[in-house]
Amino acid sequence: MGLTEPLGKLRLGVNIDHVATVRNARGGAYPDPIRAAKLAEDAGADGITAHLREDRRHISDADIDGLMQALTVPLNFEMAATDEMQKIALRHRPHAVCIVPEKREERTTEGGLEVAREENHLAHFIAPLRDAGCRVSIFIAADRAQIEAANRIGAAVIELHTGAYCDAHAEGRFDTRDAELARLRDMAAFAHDLGLEVHAGHGLTYDTVTPVAAFPEVMELNIGHFIIGEAIFRGLTPAIAEMRRLMEEARA
Predict the structure, then answer these.
(1) What is the residue extent of each domain of the chain?
(2) With helix as H, strand as E and coil as C, how does the chain read?
(3) Could you confirm whether 105 is annotated as catalytic?
(4) CATH C-level class of 11-251
(5) Active-site residue among 18, 41, 51, 161?
(6) 169 labelled catalytic
(7) Is 51 part of the annotated catalytic residue set?
(8) What is the pTM of this model?
(9) 180-210 pLDDT, tens per residue?
(10) Are the C-beta atoms of 138 and 99 separated by less than 8 Å?
(11) What's the CA gap between 66 and 1, in Å, rounded?
């Protein structure tokens, strides 16, 4: 989402996609993702993330319209690299656009974008978004070749996919977890040295956020599914407050 701040300040972007998932399970208007976004904003979120998927399985076009009107914090608009999504982004001109891989059959985003193989296409795809004033972020694995390619195509930001690290932790594969964490740490430093702003996200929980939040090069964490799930038990504002507390303790 790319707010300009000195290194050391860690931002929290709250993804509200799965409020829409619950709403869509009944096909009505409740719960309202825009209401959730405003609550998150009031609770101290630095930005709101929403992924408009091609199949509209959670966030809808109307949700994006409403978020653009309602928010006073930046919107991070996640989208696939398609002509349809580019047109929507250019119409709204959100603060940030995060390009993510997308497959219809996946439950959630399974990995990072393949930038190195699609470098020419992606360079041309993001150029109009940059010209429109959007900060372009690329959601990628912690891989040197992908980071270098993201830098070459002119992305301002990369978001490192933390899913493999979080999955290994949840499954008790601690050697793999530690190796994934080390890779994230090394690639965050590498990307920062290239001049890219570094974000991270996917699957982060209270149990896994602290080591990633401690990386000094990481400027923003985008967290959604866990916070929305935890809000069922403790409420959205306390769920966000606890995540913020853990992030700030790690940074200190």
Answers:
(1) 11-251
(2) CCCCCCCCCCEEEEECHHHHHHHHHHCCCCCCHHHHHHHHHHCCCCEEEEECCCCCCCCCHHHHHHHHHHCCCCEEEEECCCHHHHHHHHHHCCCEEEECCCCCCCCCCCCCCCCCCCHHHHHHHHHHHHHCCCEEEEEECCCHHHHHHHHHCCCCEEEEECHHHHHHHHCCCHHHHHHHHHHHHHHHHHHHHCCCEEEEECCCCCCCHHHHHCCCCEEEEEECHHHHHHHHHHCHHHHHHHHHHHHHHHHC
(3) no
(4) alpha beta
(5) 51
(6) no
(7) yes
(8) 0.92
(9) 999 999 999 999 999 999 999 999 999 999 9
(10) yes
(11) 18
Residue type, 190: F
Instruction: Please name which of 138, 11, 18 lies closest in space to residue 78, comparing C-alpha atoms.
Output: 138
**Token pair in block for residue 149:** 């390619």
Residue 248 corresponds to which tokens in the numbers above?
Answer: 């700030």
Residue 2 · residue 137 · CB < 8 Å: yes
Does residue 1 carry a pLDDT above 80? no
